[in-house]
Design brief:
Blueprint (H helix, E strand, L loop, with lengths): L1 H11 L2 E2 L2 H11 L13 H23 L5 H11 L4 H11 L5 H9 L2 H7 L5 H22 L4 E2 L2 H22 L26 H12 L1 H4 L5 H20 L20 E7 L19 H8 L3 E4 L2 E3 L5 H9 L19 H7 L3 E6 L9 H7 L4 E4 L15 H11 L3 E6 L24 H26 L3 E7 L27 E5 L1 H6 L1 H9 L4 E3 L3 H10 L27 H14 L8
Parallel strand pairs: 1-2, 3-8, 3-9, 5-11, 6-7, 6-8
Antiparallel strand pairs: 4-10, 9-10
Helix pairs in contact: 2-3, 3-9, 4-8, 5-8, 6-12, 10-12, 12-16, 14-16
């Protein structure tokens, strides 16, 4: 009797499944891969790559399905592993034009739960509804398949499908395996972990990005994007931690040791790719890009603009460290500094400030990892942009609610705001219809619009601090500039070879209560607005602003509160020598500045 039951049961399991169910499951799993991504460029130009990636994913899914004899088993495994979060992948694609990537994982991992919760409020409600409906649909499909316990794909069918699809997957590798390297091709030298030269220093960040690039077909495709993004993020974090291991505490002369700070709120705003020559406040020939800040200056507020400030490099990852520490991890030329110390963020924390790093840029990557290493010094961190610098993401106003909440929660606060500023693509940096050239598609006009948006953001921050009533200071500096498209040099977008790339805007604003209480310092800041400085003056200036007095800074350091003729920068030569070199290079060829 038992044998008969087993025989009947086995016989019942031989019910074949319609072939279209196999194909339908493959289609459902790959729904996100049928969407064109903005990051892939033009569909007309890259259609072959798109179809190649789509076919690759379809073949992989088909091979995976052949591992299961019963549709109910296949659907259950697919749901538990991938399908339940498929609405997330679809939503990210529709809202950002990108797949889930390491930047988004970094935003989630490095941002406080409170800020993530507030950031989620900008997600349209229909996506949450779609998430629920989709999972209900998947549950319904599973229930329907459970009612068909005898459905199965035959071994004959599965083996043929697997062999066919696997052969198609392997064919390109078999064909290309015979292609050898070109004779005489130089072999890249290998490096060891203990070599700390200017090349090896960036190796960890580069390797993390290269691993993602090698698997581009999978890292941008569902459902592989999430595990690849997590792995990319973890590699990036390891690189950041390795960099942080070389930091040491700054010596007492670079700190506020033994000083009771007079400032209660300090905000450092790091601009991006903004040239001073596009700011009407500094350059009357520019369009009306800075009406808000100019109005504050006209009203007699404590606001000071430095018309001779210079960037020391045109690379963000080499410029920002010197804006944060007098002994940065890397000097502006990219060379490693064995005497690197923790940044001004740690100095403020040691002095009793609650510290926060709020960023509209990425938390990892070749271009962002070195800066994120400094962000880790802050007690609170928030990376609020799900996109990279090359794509449409959040505008810089996403930082304002987070700033307001942090100031409300802490009586004494030091906050760094890392903005996207005027980074190319310029039209992505401000809302539609904004600026002196609303709805323009011209790169030159879009650049001016992005500067005007920075003016608006700074005005809103200043207004927030003014209404707060505490003794507050704000310091803004752009890491480097960028050539105004179609300007005197008639260059295109994202050009950093002209004088525009080095001549950057720097400003200081003091609240009424702070300025009135520290008039001597305010007068010094006003006196030096036409003197030459580099952005390396930022750390010492912040120390001067926090303590509120006019004591002479440590020899070798710049401060906007002190004449630049008295003090020299720590890298790699005196300030006067570096400025002289820049002026000679700019006079020789303002459209191609080569500082020797």
């Amino acid at each position: 009797m038992v044998l008969q039951i087993i025989k009947n049961f086995s016989k019942g399991r031989e019910i074949p499944v319609p072939w279209w169910i196999f194909g339908a499951i493959i289609f459902v799993v790959n729904l996100p891969n049928f969407l064109w991504l903005e990051s892939s460029g033009s569909l007309q130009v890259h259609s072959i790559e798109f179809l190649e990636k789509l076919l690759f994913c379809l073949l992989l899914t088909a091979c995976f399905l052949t591992l299961f004899a019963r549709p109910r088993q296949a659907w259950l495994v697919l749901y538990l592993l991938f399908l339940w979060w498929q609405p997330l992948a679809l939503g990210v694609r529709f809202m950002s034009g990108l797949p889930i990537n390491a930047t988004m994982v970094g935003m989630a991992m490095a941002t406080s739960p409170t800020e993530l919760r507030n950031l989620s409020t900008i997600i349209p409600g229909q996506w949450f509804a779609f998430f629920i409906i989709w999972n209900m649909f998947c549950g319904g499909v599973l229930c329907a398949l459970l009612k068909k316990p005898h459905w199965r794909w035959s071994w004959n069918f599965r083996s043929k499908v697997f062999i066919f699809n696997f052969a198609l997957l392997a064919l390109p590798y078999i064909v290309l395996s015979g292609v050898s390297k070109v004779p005489g091709e130089p072999v890249q030298p290998t490096t060891t972990s203990d070599q700390l030269d200017s090349i090896d220093f960036w190796n960890g960040f580069k390797q993390a990005d290269q691993h993602a690039d090698r698997a581009k077909n999978l890292s941008e495709a569902f459902p592989y994007e999430l595990p690849f993004a997590i792995l990319h993020y973890l590699e990036g974090r390891r690189a950041i931690n390795a960099v942080r291991a070389h930091l040491s505490p700054p010596p007492p002369e670079y700190t506020l040791e033994g000083v009771q700070p007079r400032a209660e709120v300090v905000v450092l705003v790091i601009g991006e790719s903004s040239t001073r020559n596009a700011w009407h406040w500094f350059n009357p020939q520019a369009p009306a890009t800075t009406p808000m800040l100019e109005a504050r200056a006209a009203r007699g507020e404590y606001i000071f603009g430095y018309s001779q400030a210079l960037a020391q490099t045109t690379s963000t990852r080499q410029a920002v460290p010197s804006m944060l520490s007098v002994q940065p991890l890397v000097w502006p030329d990219g060379s490693f500094n064995p005497k690197a110390t923790y940044s001004i963020v740690s100095v403020a924390k040691q002095a009793g400030f609650a510290t926060a790093w709020l960023s509209n840029q990425a938390a990892i990557g070749t271009h962002d990892g070195i800066i994120a290493a400094y962000a880790q010094e802050a007690e609170a961190q928030a990376f609020l942009n799900p996109s990279g610098f090359a794509d449409q993401g959040n505008f810089d106003n996403v930082l304002l609610p987070a700033l307001q909440r942090y100031l409300a929660e802490n009586s004494r606060a030091f906050v760094v705001l890392h903005t996207m500023g005027s980074h190319f693509n310029y039209k992505y940096r401000y809302p539609n219809g904004f600026g002196p050239y609303p709805n323009s598609r011209d790169a030159r006009e879009a650049y001016f619009n992005s500067v005007a948006y920075t003016d608006t953001i700074l005005d809103q921050i200043v207004e927030m601090l003014a209404r707060d009533g505490r003794k507050a200071v704000l310091l803004y500096a752009s890491d480097h500039g960028e050539a105004v498209p179609g300007g005197a040099c008639n260059v295109g977008s994202a050009n950093r070879n002209t004088i525009d790339a080095y001549e950057v805007p720097v400003l200081v604003w003091l609240s009424r209560s702070y300025g009135d209480a520290n008039r001597a310092l305010a007068e010094r800041l006003a006196q030096h607005q036409t003197q030459s400085y580099t952005v390396a003056a930022i750390p010492q200036t912040l120390i001067d602003l926090m303590r509120g007095d006019i004591r002479e800074p440590t020899p070798g350091l710049q401060s906007l509160a002190w004449s630049s003729r008295r003090h020299n920068s720590t890298w790699p030569e005196s300030l006067s020598v570096w400025v002289e070199k820049y002026k000679k290079a700019a006079e020789k060829n303002p459209c191609f500045v080569l500082i020797r």
